[in-house]
Design goal:
By secondary structure, the chain is α/β, with parallel strands linked by helices. It is built from one helix and eight strands, in the order αββββββββ.
Length: 118
């Protein structure tokens, strides 16, 4: 009788380990859940840093005005446009298509930058 109990316990342990291993690699498991991509551009000293940013499709880019004066972020192709950003204000845009997106500050048009989406 003791032998059957040991065999059943061993079999149950094997089944439990197999189930855990299978569930660890399943698409719905938290180990495979990725955070949405994000990137930052700093607006400071009348420039965008980095001036050219390369990101993947689906990335949200956030611009933060670190200057003491207002700025805007305006796509030359009219894809996105921020309100006037005062010091420490932010503007975000999620890039859903590959391409190059040049932009500028409409208050200071010599301030330019671009986002390359791959």
């Amino acid at each position: 009788m003791m032998r059957k109990s040991v065999c059943i316990v061993g079999l149950l342990a094997t089944v439990m380990v197999a189930t855990l291993l299978l569930s660890a690699g399943s698409p719905g498991s938290s180990a495979n859940t990725a955070e949405p991509a994000s990137a930052e551009v700093k607006v400071d000293n009348f420039s965008f840093g980095p001036a050219t940013l390369t990101v993947a499709v689906g990335t949200t880019v956030t611009w933060t005005n670190r200057d003491d004066i207002p700025h805007t972020i305006v796509s030359t192709d009219k894809v996105f446009k921020s309100k006037v950003l005062d010091t420490d204000e932010k503007f975000s845009f999620t890039f859903s298509k590959a391409g190059t997106y040049p932009y500028f500050c409409s208050i200071h048009p010599k301030m330019t930058g671009s986002v390359v989406v791959q």
